[in-house]
């Protein structure tokens, strides 16, 4: 099994280690030490023993970021060795930096533990020194221990907490931006879907009538029939153009100077049915409702409009019935038409009509079903929708 290899030192740490080593060698070259030769604690007097702790501490500086769990114990041992020599100021300075880095770059557990340990050591050094020597100067030993260990450890903890807080704030900002972008994409998608439904429902009815009547005008050699067909074509063209202008006005949002036309309401069902009759459908309308919210009115109007368009394109000969009733906090819509046996529709379609109707009902927490049904009078195509009218039930 290959031996574990220490990670490569950071470039900045290499500069720090080199600066500390050169600074220590410069002090050593000038004969500057932290303690005199005759001090009782100095067990190894002379200039050369000073270099060993200095070199070891400089090596620990190399690993201050890459391996703080290794650097701190080794640097502590070097500091202890430095105390029994005449000492070098740069050894002490580099040790404080290793202590600071051990808290800043070490594990979260080490970052919490080291300040407590160094604080207790500072208090213990103060108490023990005063108890042994009984002079005020003995308190300076605890102060020195605190400056060498507790102060850099506390500074490292403060910087680490600020760094973690900044990183957390950055992550929250990124998450907020991501959520905002997701909301924007969803809003754009929802708006595009809404405009697609509006465009389809507004234009499909008129274009289907134009396609059917233009086919009749081209296929029948009857001036009167052709004239009636062209009249229907012109009427649907004008109405379709007005609807398109209304939609363009909404998209442009011209503001106070040019307000877009109001959205259609259930009061316009009579005109809608009249247009369907003009287009050739035998339509009857039965409506019994009170006040309903504006979103429900628009959805109900569009469902009836699309159902009549489908009947114009697909239904067989016979009566088309439109019924609206409001009961128990909901508006029910039923549009029935003879089930046609045509090989092909009278006008081409995209199949998006039923999808749009279901989307409108779902957005209002309602339901919509469409399909053939058997009745005593024959097979019919029925579109049945239920839309809640209570304000609390609407999204």
Strand arrangement across the biggest beta sheet: 1-2-3-5-4
Percent helix, as a range, is 55-70%
Which structural category do the helix and sheet elements fall into? alpha+beta
- Our count of helices gives 10
Describe this entry's structure for a reader:
The protein folds into 2 domains: 11-175, no CATH class; 266-395, 2-Layer Sandwich (Heat Shock Protein 90), CATH 3.30.565. The protein is built from 10 helices and 5 strands, in the order ααααααααβαββαββ. The chain has helices at residues 11-29, 51-62, 68-83, 89-105, 108-133, 139-219, 223-252, 269-278, 294-314, 352-363, and strands at 282-288, 319-327, 330-338, 367-375, 378-388. The chain has a 5-stranded mixed sheet with strand order 1-2-3-5-4. Helix 2 runs antiparallel to helix 3 (68-83), helix 6 (139-219) runs parallel beside helix 9 and helix 8 packs parallel to helix 9 (294-314). It is rod-shaped.
List the helices and strands and how they pair.
Blueprint: H1 11-29, H2 51-62, H3 68-83, H4 89-105, H5 108-133, H6 139-219, H7 223-252, H8 269-278, E1 282-288, H9 294-314, E2 319-327, E3 330-338, H10 352-363, E4 367-375, E5 378-388
Parallel strand pairs: 1-2
Antiparallel strand pairs: 2-3, 3-5, 4-5
Helix pairs in contact: 1-2, 1-4, 2-3, 2-4, 3-4, 4-5, 4-6, 5-6, 6-7, 6-9, 8-9, 9-10
